[in-house]
Amino acid sequence: MKIAVTKESLAHELAEERKIDAKELKVLQAQARSEKKSIFQLLVEKELIKEEEVSEFLSDKLQMPLLNLNSLRIPKEILTLVPKKLTEKYQILPLAKIGKLITLATSTPFDILMRDDLKEITKCDVVFVLASPKTLATLVENYYGDAGNLEKMLEGMDDEGLEIVKEKDDFSDALNQKQGEGAEDAPVVRMVNLILDEAIRSRASDIHFEPYERNFRVRYRIDGSLKEAFSHSRDMYPSLCARVKIMSTLNITEKRIPQDGRFRVKVRDREIDFRVSILPIYYGEKIVLRVLDKGGLKSGLDKLGFSEKPTSVFAEAIKNPYGMILVTGPTGSGKSTTLYTILNTLNTIDRNIMTVEDPVEYQVEGITQTQVNAEVGLTFASGLRSLLRQSPDIVLVGEIRDGETADIGVKAALTGHLVFSTLHTNSAAGAMTRLIDMGVEPFLIASSVICVAAQRLMRKICQYCKEPYPVPEDVLRRCGLKPEDLKDVQSFRGKGCAKCNQSGYYGRMGTIEVLKMDPEIRDLVLQKKSSDVLHEVAVKKGMETLFQNAFGIFKNGLTTLEEVLRVSSQE
Description:
Layout: H1 7-17, H2 22-34, H3 39-45, H4 51-62, H5 76-79, H6 84-90, E1 93-98, E2 101-106, H7 112-122, E3 125-130, H8 133-144, H9 150-154, E4 162-164, H10 169-179, H11 187-201, E5 206-211, E6 215-222, E7 225-233, H12 237-247, E8 259-267, E9 270-281, E10 284-293, H13 308-317, E11 323-328, H14 335-346, E12 353-357, E13 368-371, H15 380-387, E14 394-397, H16 403-413, E15 418-423, H17 430-437, H18 442-448, E16 449-461, E17 466-468, H19 473-478, E18 492-494, E19 505-516, H20 519-526, H21 531-540, H22 546-555, H23 561-568
Parallel strand pairs: 2-3, 11-15, 11-16, 12-13, 12-14, 14-15
Antiparallel strand pairs: 1-2, 4-8, 5-6, 5-10, 6-7, 8-9, 9-10, 16-19, 17-18
Helix pairs in contact: 2-3, 11-12, 15-16, 17-21, 18-20, 20-21, 22-23
């Protein structure tokens, strides 16, 4: 006797695989009904399973093929078989028609009404294949989305108060020459202004312009994650690229090679810099803008938001007249913000502060900044060598990338200069072994380095939708914790709301570990001990690790244990 496969039976089977007990599943099913969602969709939203895992599970159990639709090209005559309204209602996509049989992609194969509606409208039999909900939603938008005129898309949006800051005469000339009379009111100019303004309002750190075969999309990176702002037909994308190039004083006719530039806007009495990177790709040019808000730079170590212990170590370290202070971490972990905040704190009339960077991220009054230019031979090493002839008191090297730069920086720290720099290592202890690997003598490292900080940025729980939340057992296990470890700790999460774009997180804060050099650590460096040994000894001597620091933030109710796990697993 064949047992019918139902949505409920599959939900129970999936719950058993994921070790979700019957009671919890019942609650989830009730929530799914009340929110008019699929139980599988809710499991994905609760991060109990990944979307692609649900698709693979359903494909296996229902014996339905799971297709990767990104490589398909669907003819227009096939798309017209199903009305746009129906594709949006059911999130389906017609793929092919043979005789009286239509093949469609769906992520909800259990919807009986969908099947009946399609048969009625198309007057054909229908057969379904599976596709992931995200892919399907994107393709439905791409194939059926409204590519109406730009003015309609911009309707209701507001860019009041945003203007381009024309700092140089040649910039003004370029704008006047390229834009012509009344260009500021042109749709593409207004569109770019609106994109920039919305990015600033949304606290975005980056803006991505991405062209595809039929459309282009704009995404904002907010709190470390990319969110789609909108997509549009690609007919006006060349004009958008030209507009960004004009603003950045780049060559608008050059489309074969990468270009880098920057521009500044003034919005609501704030001046904000944008760093521009343009890369030729298959369907045109991809543009990424880095948003650099100088207003976010504060003076005073307490403004960094770190806990008391690492802040006090930093405060003592920067009192030294010479030596080297390093900040490590992956790209986007807040290293530049930390170093610029320290420089702002030290930026007084009696100090000569100089930097060599690639690129110059924040332009700070009172600090002499040099941009690396490899094309003319101005590297970190050559720039640093020349900079040291300018009688600096404090030096910032944007990044130590090679042995020559490391050697010059270390020797500068031993000859009366306070040197700051960054390294791409996962831990504070790893910086010592990285310098040795670059060829710097251990005795120079031991003599020059004052302290090393490793930092990450972790997302904060949205305060507008914060709610108590029991930590899942698998997260506890992966953190090496037991339920009794959280006996006196109230854990929270963000439920998701309009303020946080349904993410449950709003804003970020730093978590850090600071390794302070002392006689014992110096001896270990001289012996070329591994980073693991250095880390272990530093912890025994009281260093608070990234995990410990992040866990303290979790216990204060500011973030989730999932975030603690995410940032500390990068160690």
